[in-house]
């Protein structure tokens, strides 16, 4: 029962934090100051980088070595496939990043609000996969340490989801949506995380032998999002050192959570 309760927490917490972040639209209806946005985006980047290393790549290497495999092969291979997977989604799914005027992906007639929503939703796919795989690994091992590590990862993803919720609801409001619809858009952008987490858990339970590849796949997908989108947005314009400090703060926090608790 403890495992089931913690699994429920791990699935619900990141989504709840996205919802709380989106709720800022009820209290703050202006645009986010550039420096604040740089710090928040940088912070999210740092958390995702640290989580990719300590929560995904290192367990992938350990799992492979326990099976008598060469640890770096599934770690490197899965990492590359994860990046290529996000590259394919990035080129196919129509979406529009904050501060950009031209959408990416295939041409579409969708509204700017829809494209902004899809851009943030795209970020959340690898995060949901990461949380799902971490809990799948914990359920496979049946060890308290693995369960704690999965919970820590869910907490880290939730912490960085708070600014992401605001980063979609506030721009949606500025695009002309009502407050309630902007809040709903910010909330729904995070719904993809528990969905992909559950799907990943179900799939991973059927291919346990591929767990090292799957863990590193999620790491590669997250690093792609960080390098392709979050860090460039955090470094845009003058005083980009604020974004850099945000990256360092997020990295240190997630590293401490992983090492001290995981």
TrEMBL record:
Keywords: Cell membrane, Membrane, Transmembrane, Transmembrane helix, Zinc
GO molecular function per UniProt: zinc ion transmembrane transporter activity
Pfam families according to UniProt: Zip
Membrane topology, record value: Multi-pass membrane protein
Transmembrane segments: 6-28, 40-61, 73-93, 114-139, 145-162, 182-204, 210-231, 243-261
Annotated localization: Cell membrane
Principal location: membrane
One GO location term (cellular component): plasma membrane
Family that this chain belongs to: Belongs to the ZIP transporter (TC 2.A.5) family.
Protein name as annotated: ZIP family metal transporter
Organism of derivation: Faecalispora sporosphaeroides
